[in-house]
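If your schedule permits, I should be very grateful for your opinion on a structural question. I have a record of one protein: its chain in single-letter code and its fold written as discrete structure tokens. Kindly check, if you would, that the fold set down in the tokens agrees with what the sequence suggests. I remain grateful for any guidance, and I place the record below:

***
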Amino acid sequence: MEMPRTSFGLIHLLGFLFLFVSSYAASESVYDTFLQCLSNHSTPSDQASSIVYAQTNSSFPNVLQSYIRNQRFNQSSTPKPLIIVTPTNDSQVQAAIICSKNLSIQLRIRSGGHDYDGLSYVSDVPFFILDMFNLRSIHVNINDETAWVQAGATLGELYYRIWEKSRVHGFPAGVCPTVGVGGHLSGGGYGNMLRKNGLSVDHIVDAQIVDVNGRILDRKSMGEDLFWAIRGGGGASFGVILSYKIKLVRVPKIVTVFRVEKTMAKNDTEIVYKWQHIADKIDNDLFIRLLVQPITVKNDNESSKDEKSTTTMKATFKSLFLGDATRLISVMNKDFPELGLVKEDCKEMSWIESVLDWANFDKGTSVDVLLNRIPKSVKFLKRKSDYVQKPIQKNGLEGLWKKMIELGKGGMVLNPYGGRMSEIPASETPFPHRAGNIFKIQYSVTWEEEGAEADEKYVNVMRELYSYMTPFVSKSPRGAYLNYRDIDIGISHNCKNSYQEGKIYGVKYFMNNFERLVKVKTDVDPQNFFCYEQSIPPLLK
């Protein structure tokens, strides 16, 4: 006999309610167990409830979304953590690790939330988030030119605190002020002084990490192998970074910036071609980033009167020079006259003002804006990376422009290497992309439309452009940059037997350093508690 539709529907509804209530009860049980454990293992024990947010807490959505920097992972369908832990002291971090491990719940560690593919706050298995934003103290010691900075601080806060103490010191890290220190430094973060000073990790002299057993270790107690691994190998594979001790760098009282735009409609491919030949060899005080992207321009000439606009390519040359404009013009006239730089293109300023300029703040903006942890906007985005070791020929560039115009959206940010980057051995830190690389590419697409259709469309734009570039970039393996997280290049599907899967993406990020990272991982976290889609796998014993 056929079951009445109403009865069938009622059974489904009751089944759904049962699953919902069961899930809710399980979540509540996990919360109660975790909270009790946290109280037992942290001090002060009576504060545990104030730093733990379950999904039933009214503040949960705000805490979760406050440090999501990619709208792709801020949807109703995005997996949510069972619990968010927001520690205010080191003992609470220790306890969070112990209690998560006791419950066999995966722990995601978030400092600033700028992980491009959301791996610091999204997982397909039940998980907690350990959100480090409360741990953001910074202590600058100008006498020995060092600073201790906690993982939850932002780069903007770090630069501000350095500036408070000195006008002739800086730090060679990223140009986005809302990026978290913990992820940026542990992943080999770079900035616009890399040709002069190398990477941020080249200036780390000590660190504090909580290991899988809940112990706080410094450089001496963790040993040189683990200290090596967390300077570019990604801290979240090995433990929870509490803080880094960094060595500051000297900066001149006056630096110079310029921004020059060229359109390919004016046959400026020659300038881009020349940039490839000089960008990594020019004066080490000079960093010239190149952004290429398709743009739509209005037609003014008679022959195009039937078409109101056309799509062409724009090249933007953005620079930081550690010196004054007069010397910069001299360097450019000697090595890169094709750009046609003149004194009027140049702006002299202090180093901290150049930080604001590179972050696209208007002239005259107060330095206090660096203390703002919230970005101007949060949009949908996808990023990928590559390394170029031989200049792309002119016909190759022309073909690339045609492809980018055909795709219609998406840009490429080209960051020159050379200088100090070529002097540091590839094995010095886990970050291996040193000598032999002319520039790094960041493929970039950003959009505002919501929905799965738009997501698929724009992600495919990036994948198609990335595929097109295959003949022009590094090979065997094709290199990638860890801090431009990209799950397209491979993931581990579970936390068991993950070595073979991990090697696929691991050698792209770390080249010959991957096996040493695996050895360190095997020594410090053999059970692979600190596991995520692109973590370093241990070897099974």
Remarks:
- Confidence is low (pLDDT under 50) at residues 1-25.
